[in-house]
Amino acid sequence: MYALVDCNNFYASCQRVFEPRIRRLPVVVLSNNDGCIIARSNEAKDLGIKMGDLPFKMLDFLTANNVQIFSSNYTLYGDMSARVMQVIAAAAPKYEVYSIDEAFIDLQGVAINELEAFAKRLKRNILQATGLPVSVGIAPTKTLAKLANRWAKKHPETDGIHVLGTDQKVSVALQQTMVGDVWGIGRQYEQMLNRHNITTALQLSLTSESWIRKSMSVVGLRLVKELKGQSCILLEEMQPPKQNICTSRSFPEIITEKEDVRKWVMTHMASCAEKLRRQNSCASAIHVFLQTNPFRMQDKQYYRSITIPLLTPANNTPELLFYAGKALNAIYRPGYNYKKAGAMVLDLVPACERQGSLFDSVDRLRAEKLMNCIDSTNAIFGRNIVRYASQGYGERWQLRQARKSPSYTTRWQDVIKIQI
DNA sequence: TCTGGGGTCCTAGGACCC
DNA sequence: TCTGGGGTCCTAGGACCC
């Protein structure tokens, strides 16, 4: 059996932990640049607030209902997530961190009649250690565990825990789950299946496997087998290193000048380089893109991107910035209102397996020492305290985050590090 | 009555997830 | 004025090899 542990309304719940006075008030968390709503407490959901709603369009409604609004604070969420995972690690020998707020657990070794008690204990321990409420779904496959978790969230009488321990319970859950709510069925597949009169998870599980294979590829076939209780998606205890890394943001305001765009591209590429070094990888190619605001119908639209292969895989910032600059020169065109830019590093390889080049002229050992020095300095004094001049500086390069809370759990660590 | 038969690598596009 | 930011996997088709 597998368990899926999922934090309820994770970002909103994180904000609540540190402000008890909002514990019973509706809470929403905003995306980068405070653009749209990406997390809601149950009270906010009950008010009819949707994912992706635009706060500026409904400010009156939000204030009238005393909705508490927060800019996103990923430092806080990341740290709270790590604490939840620690509790899970202490409770289970085999688990998989699936996302910032979810983990699968392999329950081999827990007796069938002990599953419910195990889940209750875990839920209580997580709440006690972090203040965060979670839901637990338990079932014979990961896909069914997802379904069970959803059931637990939808049915308050379960108290956040649901075990699909018998065929009977599985088929009831399947029958009452819409096919579009199944893990792995997105909007396109939902429409396609509905056209074939498949509307529930149960109907999907009873569909001919050869037809599924033909119209939904092996991914769909795995999914259907999982619904039937045949485990096809294994637990991944080790997170494989990323194959691509991307950093991109919408600008807080429209930008027309190339040098202003450049500062953002450089900042994003520097961030990619940092993430690369953190996972001990090198990039074989870089990619840069920029675009106008597609929502502004009155503007001339432009989107362009470019990929530049590197002679030798690299992860040092100045080298990647050099190529990012060349990339921007190739794709930038004057006369547009730019809204967004991004940098990516592609085809990542482990730093220790990097293929050298006969014609490489970079002193890589020296570069590595410099990067180590910059990374550790920034780790102590804060992100981007030491940075390249081409990244720019000053208020104009900050995101809009008008309602950001303190990073409650990490600030004291910063202080300790500085003292050391 | 008739088509050669293997392969690999790369890219674009489409689907999905949080 | 204002519309998020990351990722993965799979398939088909084209270009190439012997």
Automatic annotation (TrEMBL):
SUPFAM superfamilies attached to this UniProt entry: DNA/RNA polymerases
Domain spans labelled UmuC: 2-186
Record key words, sorted: DNA damage, DNA repair, SOS mutagenesis, SOS response
Gene Ontology biological process: DNA repair; error-prone translesion synthesis; SOS response
Gene3D superfamilies assigned to the protein according to its UniProt record, in alphabetical order: 3.30.70.270, 3.40.1170.60, 5' to 3' exonuclease, C-terminal subdomain
MF terms in GO: damaged DNA binding; DNA-directed DNA polymerase activity
Listed PROSITE patterns: UMUC
Organism domain of life: Bacteria
Alphabetized InterPro entries for the sequence: DNA/RNA_pol_sf (IPR043502), DNA_pol_Y-fam_little_finger (IPR017961), DNA_polymerase-Y (IPR050116), DUF4113 (IPR025188), Rev_trsase/Diguanyl_cyclase (IPR043128), UmuC (IPR001126)
GO cellular component, one term: cytosol
PANTHER family assigned to the protein according to its UniProt record, in alphabetical order: DNA REPAIR POLYMERASE UMUC / TRANSFERASE FAMILY MEMBER, PROTEIN UMUC
Similarity section: Belongs to the DNA polymerase type-Y family.
Protein name in UniProt: DNA polymerase V
Species this chain originates from: Chitinophaga polysaccharea
